[in-house]
Automatic annotation (TrEMBL):
GO terms of molecular function: S-methyl-5-thioribose-1-phosphate isomerase activity
Catalyzed reaction equations: 5-(methylsulfanyl)-alpha-D-ribose 1-phosphate = 5-(methylsulfanyl)-D-ribulose 1-phosphate; 5-deoxy-alpha-D-ribose 1-phosphate = 5-deoxy-D-ribulose 1-phosphate
Gene3D superfamilies: translation initiation factor eif-2b, domain 1 (1.20.120.420), Translation initiation factor eif-2b, domain 2 (3.40.50.10470)
Amino-acid biosynthesis found in the keyword field: yes
Protein name listed in UniProt: Methylthioribose-1-phosphate isomerase
BP term (GO), one: L-methionine salvage from methylthioadenosine
Amino acid sequence: MSEHAESMRTIWYETEGDKVCIIDQTQLPHALQIITLETLADACRAITDMQVRGAPLIGITAAFGVYLSLKQNPQCLLSACQQLAATRPTAINLQWALTQIQQELQALDTADQIGSALSLARQLLADDAGACSAIGDNGLQILKALLKQKQQSQPSEQSGENACLNILTHCNAGWLATGGWGTALAPIYKAHQAGLPVHVWVDETRPRNQGASLTAWELARSGVPHTLITDNAGGHLMQHGMVDVCIVGSDRTTRQGDVCNKIGTYLKALAAFDNDVPFYVALPASTIDFAVNDGVREIPIETRSADEVNYVSGLADDGTVKRVRISPPATGVSNYGFDVTPARLVSGLITELGVYPANVEGVAKIAEAMAADQG
C-alpha cells in the first residue's frame, strides 16, 4: 500500500457526531484501531498512555481536550489546562499549545469559549501540518545537496544502489507524531516523492519500540525503502560508511541549541560526530523553549513505568498479540524516556522557517523569524 504523507492524520475532528478521533498508536503495527475521545479524561489518558505521542501531536490533542472539557463544563478552562499540562513533563509543545488556547479563550465570554476552543484546536492541527510540510521542503534541500555530493565523490562505475542516500532516524517523528508529514520524516517523504533514491535505517527505539512499530509501519505504507536495525547498530553502520546523514526530531530545544529527544538520541549523535556524519534535528519552532538554556541541567526528563522495560508485546505465531516478560522479577529498572544532545553535536536545526545553526545565535535568528512571521 502506498499512501501520501500529506494526506494522513492521526487525530481529526468529525463534524458529523461532533467527534474527536485518534489512531490508537499502542495498537500499531498489528492493528489500525480508531478510537473516539469524548471527555477531558479521555484526552489525558490518551496522552499519558501514549495512544498519541510525539511533541506536536501531544499539544494538538491537549487543545482538543480543552474543547471536550468545556463541552462538559464551560467553567473549567483553568482546571482542564492544569490537568492536561500534568500528563507529560518533557515535551514543550504541550504547555505551548495550552498557553495559546488559554490566552485566546480567557479573552472571550464563557458562552463563546466552546466553539472557539474547537476552532483553535482545528487551527493548531492545520498549522502544524503546514509547518511540517515546510520542514520537509527545507530538509529536502539538504538531502539533495548530500546526494549530489555523494554521487560526485563516487567513481563512475559505482552507481545504482551505492548512489542511494542512507538516512538514519531514531524513534518516530513522522505524521503519526504530528499534525501531518512529520518532522524528521518530512524531508524523507519529500525526497521520496521527488524521486530521490533514499533508504532509511530505522532504529527499533527500545523500550517502546516506536521505530519498529511506528516508523517502519509509516514508511512501508508510503513505499519508502527502509531497514529496521537494533538500537546498538547505528555506530557500526556509521563506521563502515553506511550512513550518509542522521535526522531526528525534538521534544524540546533550548535557546543555546541543545536538543531533547527520545532516549538513545545522544548516543547516535556521538557516533555521528566521531564518524563525520551530519546530524540534523527537524522541529517546528514551537518546540523551542526560550526559557531554558542548558538542556542537560534544566530540562525535566520523564521517567516511565518499569513495565515498559520488563515486558514486550508482539504478534505470536497463532496471530494473537501477546505480552511477555523478558527480565527477572527481582531486577530493578530505570526507564528514562528522553536524553539531551548538546548543541555542539548538532549540524543544524531544520525548522519551518529555514535551517539554522544549533547555537545561541541560530536560535535567536529563529526567534526573529518567528516574530516577523507572526507580525
